[in-house]
């Protein structure tokens, strides 16, 4: 090991000390009791433990725990216990110290949190990354014990994303995908909106660097005009609120690059047609003796006296807060020049909760019995953990139903407001009230009208559940529910029933073999499986238990005396099988043919041999792509924004490789362009002329509809790459009567 010069040690130590001093300054600005001594003790301990270790970026490793601790205190608002845990969060995983050592020095609570973060740390940045779905299950278990574990983990992930540039591309895709798939929605659900937005933006930046740069550049070009518009819009509001005697702050909120891109894709519109890039946020200091909610509506009245409100764009999260604790009053008004602007009205308390989420939410609770929607949500997580899915991927999918769901509000027959996920059915509502109510539900009355179990509820519905003791859950009910709670309850129930049926079916098979004077052993079971064309033992027993098999075949046909030669094909079959054979993505063989550290060049010669294009998203040359190495060593090429790829990145990141196109003009792909414009005689001929003559592009099929002088056409055309289709779109838009031309991405975005 080479000797380190004193000057290098000094500058490094100075850098570390400077960051620690900044942490103490952040801490001093909070309302927490100033426990400087234990924070200093934790810092000195972690600094000594990580001494000499460097991050991939080249900086001392202790800079990472320090950065996480600063996020914990400055951006989430947690106290000394969380700061110490953040400083120590990598000590157990990366050094020789144990959880017991942490407990002896810093106490049980800090040790418990550090242990929780350590359990879910495994493999994210390691060379042999473990399957993240299983780690995620551990994350939820530890979250149910102490919510600070997940808050520190989110802070850890935020700093890792901020420094992701030092990682190789394949790791960037894996970590960015995992962040987009799990951590950003989790931050949103916990009310950490600013962190959620940054996580989404950073993920998008690493997955689509060129697109990110294009949108960011367009935002920069538009900045001066946007600032002038904001001034013209906000000055009258400033004057009005000052006249009313309020203390307040006005803040411009710019839509994130990721949000703009999502909107462009969801609506198939260009950047220039995204009109809600700018919003205004009013944060006011409430007057004493007046209800905050009433004051929000007073400010609403003042603003709508200045600007006309959009009648369908009022969002009242003051009367009924979101499940993550978010409170605000949103209204969209017509600003100068006929431009719609969203105005968000919040008190200082509401803003604190919106910025710092869970930590601030608990700070403002009025009493021990004050259970919010967020508390109820955390309860449902604990319920999910009581009956987890056996497959980690299935479990994560069930949990994601809870993460992504938007809320609607419905009423009980007595007029109580209940929050439930958007898209929930009458049966979902029954299970949200109580399991017994769900199990015996036969229907519901919505707004006093009889509806079936599968009826989708709307916000404002009054719901009465109808039950009978004779009713029992049916397997098709899984198709009637959309919420994680209801699915988990039903699956747990069916799993219990299935075990009973499997046990009964196994006894029936044993009895049938006994009748033939045969033993209950592998060779005989394989013959029975083959006869009924079933691959899994449990499936055989289940069907036998349900009475779906004619077991009289066993003595009469299966074991009817046959020539010895016939036995050969049974003996060659594998004995039995386990649930592992049903895994969605089996383990990749050790003797890998693919060099996963290099960027794979996608050439036409290797298409179908080393790689194939995913059917879920249909990538073409020029699209941002990545590769997934399957069990047969075939690389499946996905678009980076593909929903299936998002799941693969978050759960099987070690099989993700970097991929890039090396072919552009040999293979042809069917793509869809949507053209909208004014219907006039000869317009179709003009479009076809550009497509077929100017670009020599073949058309697969086309659909055209006209309505009140406006037409919409979808053209399915053969192209070689994205540059060709983009160039074609640019030339079609030059036709005078055409209003928009867009490539239709037939893809579900997460």
Task: List strands and helices in order, with pairings.
Elements (H helix, E strand, L loop, with lengths): L5 H23 L7 H14 L13 H14 L3 H9 L2 H4 L4 H8 L1 H12 L12 H14 L2 H15 L6 H21 L3 H15 L1 H13 L1 H21 L3 E8 L2 H11 L10 E8 L6 H15 L2 E8 L12 E7 L3 E9 H9 L1 H6 L9 H14 L5 H13 L2 E5 L5 E5 L4 H8 L1 H5 L1 E6 L2 E3 L11 E5 L16 H32 L6 H11 L4 H9 L7 H6 L5 H8 L28 E3 L8 E3 L11 E5 L5 E5 L3 H9 L4 E6 L7 E10 L4 H12 L4 E9 L2 E10 L2 H11 L5 E6 L7
Parallel strand pairs: 2-5, 11-15, 12-14
Antiparallel strand pairs: 1-2, 3-4, 4-5, 6-7, 8-9, 8-10, 13-14, 13-15, 16-18, 16-19, 17-18
Helix pairs in contact: 1-3, 2-4, 3-4, 3-9, 4-7, 6-7, 7-8, 7-9, 8-18, 8-19, 9-10, 9-11, 10-11, 10-27, 11-12, 13-15, 19-22, 22-24
Write structural notes for this entry.
The two termini are 48 Å apart. 48% of the residues lie in helices and 16% in strands. It has 5 domains: 161 residues, Hypothetical protein af1432 (Orthogonal Bundle); 148 residues, Beta Polymerase, domain 2 (2-Layer Sandwich); 114 residues, Beta-grasp domain (Ubiquitin-like (UB roll), Roll); 84 residues, no CATH class; 75 residues, Alpha-Beta Plaits, CATH 3.30.70. It is an alpha+beta fold. It is globular and about 95 Å long.
